[in-house]
Amino acid sequence: MPVTHIQKNPEALTLTVTSDFAVPVRRLWDAYADPRQLEKFWGPPTYPATFTRHDLSPGGRSEYRMTGPNGEHAGGYWEFLSVEEGRFFEVIDGFADEQGRPNDQLPAGRMTFSFEETATGSRLTMVQHFHSPEDMETLLEMGQAEGIEAALGQADAVLADLRSFASGREVEIQILSDTQVRASRIIRGSVEQVWQAHHDPELLRRWLLGPDGWVMTEATAAQQTGETYRYAWEPGVGVEGEPFALTGELKEIQPPHREVSTETMEGVDGPPTLNEQTLTPVEGGTLLTVVITYADAQMRDMILGTGMAEGMEASYARLEAEVLG
């Protein structure tokens, strides 16, 4: 078991959990930066977690739900107060309702995560700071210490799995719920480079093309909240297909880590999707994550069936080759 020490300090109102791992600090950090990995060990074995948002950056936020053996859900969130890449982050850690909103009926507290190198690998020190003796008693009676220990007991297997989360892999699509999917890929470039490639019209025309042979005829990017964007394509010479365009409104932007926008295909009836894109630095480049929310499962499955993953992969591979070198 990686947990080596648990200390409950009623005077200081803290719970400290120390864990040691036989991997470099960077590998351990990336397991917390990547929601695909984090959700494999954040919840206890009988309550696995699903992260529907994970922004490991100052001012960012994470939202997750843990699903019990009978399908019951327990929600949680992190609000990131500070982040020092590869070394430390601090969050407000709390419970959430079914809509992801803070559950004020249960205590929230401050939690710090410190990563350091050791002679045999790396060490993680987690410290939960409680607001009051009553909050500490409530959460410990709910089994917080035992839950953390059980959850971290799964981390070694995740850390040993290098191939599943390494750079060079194609776009991975995961179904999160009836209405949400997550697309993930590591792009070989810095966060700033990948962000710029998504907002510079000239760069967009070089890589955001989908399958080979298509031409981007318009790249009007949105740069500020409330602005609209429009991207249009047409088939090149000898390529079959009909011209089409995507448009939407920029709802939220936090350069260079996160942006949220709606998306609609022109001429197609139906509600827009909501696309939440996050860029996170990891070993090998930038982890690009897009959580897409659809109106219903039917719409989700219809769009997945169009070859969305293949089109995304072709574009991201072109981004690496032609824009980032």
Short précis:
Helix content is 23%, strand content 41%. By secondary structure, it is α+β, with helices and mostly antiparallel strands. The strands form two sheets. It has an eight-stranded antiparallel β-sheet.
Mind telling me which CATH architecture of the largest domain this is?
2-Layer Sandwich
- Strand-pairing-aware structural class: alpha+beta
Total DSSP helices: 9
Number of domains: 2
Total count of strands: 16
Radius of gyration: 21 Å
Q: What name goes with the CATH superfamily of the largest domain? A: START domain
- State the order of secondary-structure elements, H for helix, E for strand: EEHHEEEEEEHHHEEHHEEEEEEHH
With strands numbered from the N-terminus, the spatial order across the biggest sheet is: 1-2-8-7-6-5-4-3
Roughly what percent helix?
10-25%
Low-confidence stretches: none
- What share of the residues does DSSP label as strand, in percent? 35-45%
Level-1 CATH class name of the largest domain: Alpha Beta
Organism: Nesterenkonia cremea
Pfam family, one: AHSA1
Domain Activator of Hsp90 ATPase homologue 1/2-like C-terminal: 23-158, 190-322
Region (Disordered): 257-279
